[in-house]
Amino acid sequence: MPKRAAIGHFNTLSGEPIDSDGTAQSIRNEFARRLEARRIELGWNQSELARRASEHLPKPAKGQKQGHRVGRDQISHYSRGISLPRPEILRALAKALGCEPRDLVPAGVPSTVTPAAFRMTQLVDSTRVQLTVNRVVSFETATKIVALLAEEDKRAST
Fold first, then answer.
1. In 3-95, at which residue ranges do the beta strands (DSSP E only) sit?
2. Residues near 150 by Cβ (< 8 Å), separated by ≥ 6?
3. Which of 78, 116, 123, 132 lies at 20 to 30 Å from 88 by C-alpha?
4. Is 138 inside a domain boundary?
5. Structural domain includes residue 139
6. Is residue 16 part of a domain?
7. pTM tops 0.70
8. Residue 25 domain-assigned?
9. 85 and 57: one domain?
10. Beta-strand (E) ranges in the chain?
């Protein structure tokens, strides 16, 4: 399998790299600091924050037996900078803490709130890249993209 060198994850709107400050760990640490400061300011323990955030998660889908919940262990992971929450959990945490998601997320991390639209990974010793598109598009646009890729594959095989 060829080695890969990351080019970067790009914001949907600006096209700027989201890892511009250096490391993913520094982003998780800053989120943890902000989350803990708000939680302590309210005098809550991690279990209380988990309970209150769970109240703000979307209701179970039709046919689903039980809804989602935020566990104390998840709060612990966020508070220690081990992981970042998914968008729906970020929104629930912010509502529980009486703030906006952007108050918890460090600047330059739009992918926590809105997934990055594109990711390009360059193959080492190659002029080609692997492109991942994470975006909802019309059927017409999707078929144009597939046609372009099929054209490129055809040219590459001749």
1. 4-10
2. none
3. 132
4. yes
5. yes
6. no
7. no
8. yes
9. yes
10. 4-10, 118-123, 129-133
Q: What is the Cα 18 distance to its own chain's centre?
A: 11
Structure tokens given for 122 = 């360059």
Give every strand in the sheet of 4-10, ordered side by side.
4-10, 118-123, 129-133
If asked whether residues 125 and 94 sit together in one domain, one would say no
**Distance of alpha carbon 22 from the chain centroid:** 17
Write out the chain's pLDDT in tens, 158 residues. 444 444 444 333 333 344 444 467 788 888 999 999 999 999 999 999 999 999 998 877 777 666 678 999 999 999 999 889 988 899 999 999 999 998 998 765 544 444 556 677 766 566 777 777 777 778 898 899 889 988 988 887 87
How many domains, in total, are found in the chain? 2
125 and 105 housed in the same domain: no
Residues 84 and 123 in one domain: no
CATH number at residue 102: 1.10.260.40
Taking residue 39's Cβ as centre, other Cβ atoms within 10 Å add up to 21
Rounded-to-integer distance, Cα 6 and Cα 29, Å: 22
Does residue 61 sit in helix, strand or coil?
Answer: coil
Structural domain span for residue 123: 4-9+116-157
- Residue 11 tokens, joined: 């914001």
Rg of the chain's alpha carbons, rounded to an integer? 20
